[in-house]
Write a structure and sequence with these properties.
The protein is mainly β. A hairpin with a 5-residue loop joins strand 51 and strand 52 (596-597). It is flat, with a radius of gyration of 46 Å. The model is unreliable at 1-8 and 570-584 (pLDDT under 50).
């Protein structure tokens, strides 16, 4: 704003809406106001400031000067204003009586409402509309209608805001929403951390603990290595490596979301183990509670030193009266001829410990040592497991208590009774009989066929058939039925999908002329494996190394097609779906009336003297 010429004026107009009135304006100038260089025609001025006062919604400020070319520069301007007329105060109130704050029962928590009233008198404000806002959307959200959705446990502030208008002042209200979640845990788990399958192997779902029978979805984090059926959990090895298989539950009104995972290792060269009965050797298992000390055979052990008391000695109180022992991954000790001969037999009620060499052990007075006797009544022992998991075998006298301990001194290395347990604490391992099973289970999957190699001879139950392949050509493989399975021999099984129990036998039928073979680590492309891509049959393997231990059929000749159907004594099986495979069938097609057919469609045909079904 400046004076442009002598006797001229210049000015600016400041205008507010009709709802506001200007009460004052204060200017600060870069130079002093004088009559020569310009002064406001309205308001007062003093040096380099000027103030206008009044009450209007529009003000025009004019500067008048007398000297040509002088200018006044404004560096700051402050405008003071107020409402043109006072507004009616309002109060906004949230009604949260219908809101559920627990995620149990669902995430839709209900709908909040808000009323807007005049603060004085409480009359409702007609047409008042509020807007909603949640301060922490990770806890709960709210839409424009006030509907609340719970997201996660925590606290958020819900605000209802009324913007006001020319008559009513704005107002707001808040509601602190504390979200809880008392839904039960999904409780999904696997009882293992890793499993291993092999390239090309399809394995039924590994057991998932799902006590609440929740609907889970399975996924693989590395489908280049292993895929998983999202519904069943069955896994397929694709390439060597590792993948994480996850069973996930999305959550519902009663159960929280949850998941369980395991690492699936896919091995190219590792073999498939034959199936069969599980025969466990005898073993010694650590006793961890006093109640579990019952009559039976035991190893008396100093685990830290890897030794056990040798009960086979004729003189038991001797230096180095021990045998060496080793532990399995589960902490047990596998039975051997040496450690089974070193056991002690405990009779809890009688308080006796008898060595395998026939002597009872104990002490008769308070003093370091160990005595042995052929008499059952010579000594009295007590047995208990302490809080550290060690066994306390004691004999108590008026002068003190004697403990069976281990002395690890280099010139001793012996088990012996010592005053007040002054030597190394020991442990007690109880003998558990081995298990020899005469039955075992096999599972036939949805296709109704499977290959199998067993580690024992076995007879078949009703409802399941076994076959060997006794001939093959460019189109099919001939199957010959067998009544039983010979150990370490490849077979095909056919049955209604399900579990079947096989029984061990000493007299299996001989699989004479069997063309089926068991792969080794170098078996690769060109052989045939059982599959169900476009019908059950043998498919040419093209996946690289097959992996050891799998059942396969050698290629009958170099002209064999990609798919070989089954042939039972000269009649092929009906193929469930062979779309795209007709071109692989070599030879002329004839219908059942003996008429040559150039372009066969669906149905049964004679090809090379054999029946082939196309669907």
């Amino acid at each position: 704003m400046y004076q442009a010429a002598s006797g001229k004026t210049t000015g600016n107009t400041i205008t507010f809406s009709s709802e506001k009135v200007i009460t004052s304006i204060v200017f600060t100038f870069a130079n002093n106001m004088t009559a020569d260089n310009g002064v406001f025609s309205e308001g007062s001025y003093d040096s380099n400031t000027s103030t206008w006062s009044g009450s209007t919604n529009s003000v025009t400020l004019t500067v008048t000067g007398t000297t040509t070319g002088t200018r006044i520069y404004i560096t700051a301007m402050t405008v003071y204003y107020e409402d043109a007329s006072p507004k009616t105060a309002t109060t906004t109130t949230i009604d949260y009586s219908g809101i559920r704050t627990d995620r149990k029962g669902g995430d839709a928590a209900g709908t909040l409402s808000a009323s807007v009233t005049e603060t004085v008198g409480g009359a409702a404000v007609d047409g008042a509309v509020v807007t909603w806002e949640s301060s922490v959307k990770g806890v709960a959200t709210i839409n424009e209608s006030g509907a609340v959705t719970l997201v996660a446990p925590g606290t958020t502030t819900i605000t209802a805001s009324y913007a006001g208008n020319s008559t009513y002042a704005k107002s707001s209200d808040t509601y602190e929403l504390v979200v809880t979640d008392t839904r039960a845990a999904a409780d999904l788990s696997y009882g293992f951390s890793e499993q291993t399958i092999h390239v090309g192997q399809v394995h039924e779902a590994f057991t998932l603990s799902n006590p609440n029978s929740l609907a889970v979805t399975y996924s693989s984090n590395n489908t280049a290595v292993a895929t998983v059926d999202p519904s069943t959990g069955a896994v397929t090895g694709v390439a060597e490596g590792s993948a994480t298989i996850t069973a996930a539950f999305a959550g519902n009104d009663d159960y929280k979301a949850g998941q369980a995972s395991y690492t699936l290792n896919v091995d190219v060269n590792s073999g498939l183990d034959p199936v069969g009965p599980t025969n466990l050797p005898g073993r010694f298992v650590k006793v961890t509670s006093t109640e579990d000390i019952t009559d039976g055979d035991y190893l008396i052990v100093y685990a830290t030193g890897g030794v056990a008391f040798n009960g086979s000695l004729s003189t038991l109180d001797a230096t180095e009266n021990t045998i060496s022992i080793s532990f399995e991954d589960d902490g047990s000790i596998t039975e051997t001829e040496v450690n089974k001969a070193a056991v002690f037999t405990i009779d809890v009620s009688a308080g006796t410990i008898q060595s395998s060499s026939g002597y009872y052990i104990g002490v008769t007075s308070y003093g370091n040592g160990l005595k042995q006797s052929a008499s059952e009544d010579a000594y009295l022992n007590s047995f208990a497991i302490n809080n550290s998991g060690n066994v306390e075998i004691t004999a108590t006298f008026a002068t003190g208590t004697m403990y069976l301990n281990y002395n690890s001194d280099s010139n001793q290395k012996r088990f012996r009774y010592y005053k007040d347990g002054s030597q190394k604490a020991i442990q007690l391992y109880k003998y558990v009989e081995g298990v020899e099973e005469n039955t075992f289970d096999v599972t036939v999957g949805a296709a109704g066929w499977k290959t199998i190699v067993t580690n024992a001879n076995a007879t078949l139950p009703s409802g399941i058939k076994a076959y060997i392949v006794t001939n093959s050509n460019t189109n099919s493989a001939r199957l010959t039925e067998k009544a039983s399975l010979k150990a370490n021999t490849p077979y095909l099984l056919e049955a209604t999908p399900g579990d079947y129990t096989l029984t061990v036998t000493d007299t299996p039928e001989e699989p004479t002329g069997n063309l089926l073979q068991i792969s080794n680590a170098s078996t690769t492309n060109g052989v045939y494996v059982l599959g169900n891509v476009e019908g059950v049959g043998f498919y040419k393997w093209t996946g690289g190394l097959l992996g050891a231990g799998r059942v396969y059929l050698p290629a009958p000749d170099s002209d064999a097609r990609e798919f070989l159907s089954f042939d039972f004594e000269g009649e092929t099986t009906a193929i469930s779906d062979v779309r795209g495979l007709k071109s692989d069938v070599r030879g002329e097609f004839f219908n059942l009336n003996g008429q040559r057919v150039a372009q066969p469609s669906k149905g049964l045909y004679i090809v090379n003297g054999k029946k082939v079904m196309f669907k």
